[in-house]
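quick one: uridine-5'-diphosphate-glucuronic acid bound model?
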Amino acid sequence: MTDVGQEKRQLGVLGLGHVGLPTALGFAELGFHVLGTDSDTAKVEMISKGQAPFFEPEMGELLVKHLASGRFRPTLSLDEAVRGSDILFICVGTPHDAEGAADLSQVESAVRTVAESLNGYKLIVEKSTAPVHTARWIHRTIQRYRASDQEFDIACNPEFLREGTAMHDVLHPDRVVVGVETERARAWLEEIYAPLYCPIVFTDLNTAEIIKHTANAFLSMKISFINMVSDLCEAANADVMDVARGIGLDPRIGPSFLQAGVGYGGFCFPKDLNAFIHVASERGVDFSLLKEVKNVNDARIDRFLRKAQQALWVLKDKRVAVWGLAFKPHTDDIREAPSLKIVKRLLEAGCLLNLYDPRAVPEFQRVFPADGERLRYWSSPEEAVEQAHAILLVTEWPEFAAVDWKRLRARVAVPIVIDGRNCLDPAVLAAAGFEYYGIGRPAPISHPRGS
Ligand code: UGA
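yep, here:
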């Protein structure tokens, strides 16, 4: 990436999590000087030493690069980050509370400190995913708590990066959405995003906030929709993969997010769907469509486990290999991962579990510590299938499709694969002697002897 000009704005990023850290490093890569801060001292100290606090492809390398270039500087002092920056990106967490509404306490706390540290005009940008009218509250909070009459503007610039491809998404977005109230805020954000050469949708604050929730809700809806179609395909002996291709080539529908499986997880879709339903209901809109999206997703785990039970008959004392624990490939994040519920339910049913994931084992072990024969972790997919009565594929890491199935056949006790992501080739598995069950795919092609 080239430097974009000599008089660049100084940027501050408050919150160095899955959105904040890739954002900070992306701006550093674009040539900006970025101060980053987080209330988690241990995290800031790790980052300062060049250690990424979570796995994200390319991020570790960019962290080392920009600590060395001096363009990214982590600090424990929020006050320093505010004073040293022209534009402040609020990237703190917005988890949901017991009612499903967004818990905005981290946003409020960050914004109050910003207010107390104002030392000149600042553009304060809400990047965290937050309900409509949060920007308005940020504005009001700064007015209430600011120590002096310093000028400021608020903008809403939601982030659309995906975990697992975060650095790519930050540096090559398909669009940038910017909600603003003033010309100055618009001009500043236009300037910093100019090097990305992508469409910028300028709008007002409320609309920008609604765009973010709508995007995540719509994508969740696509997933639940195709998952329902997959149930129908199973009942009708049709193939949901071909259905997805058959409809996805229509540009009005599009091919992405039509992958049927065990359902969506992660820190964003489940939480944002709840928050959006809540936002709507608070304003008298019953978004029943989204409630059903959530119900369909919740039912995926039952359906997957029923498939396992139908294939294995009795689950108790069966050794089962679980491949994939992260909520999606290329991340070590297990928040709201389908694997959490699947492993819990298999243990309750008395299965003996062999678990494997290329990245997420340390995180998963915190929730499910190894427990003798009941629960073991392995360091390769091949080791994990030793004497297994079934392989349950839960996350579609590319390495699973590349294993040597003929060799695996010799290691398992019973050759059964239940592919919760439809990422394996049933013909290859059948040729290797496996009984294959996908999601919404025609009934198994082979029932080898001994199974
Ligand atoms: C999602 C959005 O895709 C990002 O645009 C957004 O910025 C982000 O949430 C956020 O709000 O921070 P992310 O949760 O990282 O990103 O990952 P996705 O690739 O969207 O996957 C979400 C879940 O849906 C995963 O569990 C994935 O396995 C599942 N999924 C995805 C399916 O089950 N089927 C599909 O066809 C696609």
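The first strand starts at residue 10 and ends at 14.
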